[in-house]
Every structure is written in C-alpha cells, then in structure tokens.
Amino acid sequence: MAEINKIPDFEALGKEILKDAESYAAVTGLNFFKASFEDQGFTDTHFEAWQSRKNDYQPDRAILISSSALMNSLQILERGNLKIKFGTYSPYAGIHNSGGTITVPVTAKSRKFFWFMWYLTGIGMYKALAITKKDAVTVHIPKRQFIGESQILMNQLDEWILNRIVERFKQI
C-alpha cells in the first residue's frame, strides 16, 4: 500500500541544493572572472571597458593578455561553509586589478634588456629606459579590474538557485 501524505525530507533537500549551489557558484564565478579578459573589461552593475594601452606597439594583442599567465592564475583560494574566495597568487595581479603607481628599479640587467628590446622592436621607449640616468622609474598602472564584487554575477547565482529550488519542489 502506498503512503499518502508522506512528508519530504526538507532538511536533506536543502543541504543538497546548497551543495549544488556551492559547486555551481565556484565554476560560474571562475568563468565569469576569466571572461573579463576576453571581454576586456569588468562587469559589476554594468560593463566597464578597460582603458587602452599608451604607446601600444601591439595593437592586435588584447589588454592584459600576453601569455595568459594572469588569467590562468585565477583560482578558488577558499571554499566551504557557503563561502567561496576567488583570487590569484600572481604578484602583479593586485596592481592591475586596483591600479596604482609603482616604482621599478633600473638595474644593469634591466638596461641590457631594454637595449635588446630596442634593437628588436625599434621602439624609442626602450632606448630611453636603457640610457636613463635614473636608478628607478615611476610607472602608473591604470585600474583594469578583472575580479571583485559583481552584482550581475550575484543575480545570475540567485536566479540559478531559485530555479533549482523550484525544479526540486516540482519533483516532490
């Protein structure tokens, strides 16, 4: 005889949905942040394109993508207890994400590199750096955010969770 009015295990159902949501959020979040490199900008409440490079000697190359090392360094740093922390251990990620000013020392080794690059490319900036009398140069890095709080991402996750809950309740 079939049971009538069997009460579903809502606690188990909730735990399963939360586990699925954490997995979905991890994959979706990582893909969302990596898409910033493809889109050449970041989306919070709206899309904000990155500032173009000054003295762009490689106009066909995407901004922040030379070897894809920065994009590929994005990862999940922490995961658990309904919390996911995305980030990177790349030493230069923070200055690109937030922007700012850095001071770069000019050493004998860097001067050799600048001479090499000037002979290779003919770009005057390299020659100027090779012959400078300065011990260090100050460089302004514009903000080109690729990771951070995003209302659009949170809305996508909220919508997915709501659809998952509705879908699961329809199966009961």
Short recap of the structure:
The chain is of the alpha+beta class and 172 residues long. It has helices spanning 10-39, 69-72, 93-98, 108-121, 124-131, 151-171, and strands spanning 41-43, 47-49, 75-80, 83-87, 100-105, 136-141.
Please, could you describe this protein's structure?
The chain is α+β, with helices and mostly antiparallel strands. The protein folds into two domains: 10-95 and 145-171, no CATH class; 100-141, no CATH class. It has helices at 10-39, 69-72, 93-98, 108-121, 124-131, 151-171, and strands spanning 41-43, 47-49, 75-80, 83-87, 100-105, 136-141. A hairpin with a 2-residue loop joins strand 3 (75-80) and strand 4 (83-87). It is elongated.
Tally of distinct domains: 2
End-to-end distance: 19 Å
Helicity level, as a percent range? Answer: 40-55%
- Described by the principal axes of the CA atoms, the overall outline is elongated
- Total DSSP E strands: 6
**Main beta-sheet strand count, sense and barrel state:** 2 strands, antiparallel
Relevant terms:
two-stranded antiparallel sheet, 48% helix, 17% strand, alpha+beta, single chain, two-stranded antiparallel ribbon
Please specify the SSE layout and strand pairing.
Layout: H1 10-39, E1 41-43, E2 47-49, H2 69-72, E3 75-80, E4 83-87, H3 93-98, E5 100-105, H4 108-121, H5 124-131, E6 136-141, H6 151-171
Antiparallel strand pairs: 1-2, 3-4, 5-6
Helix pairs in contact: 1-6, 4-5
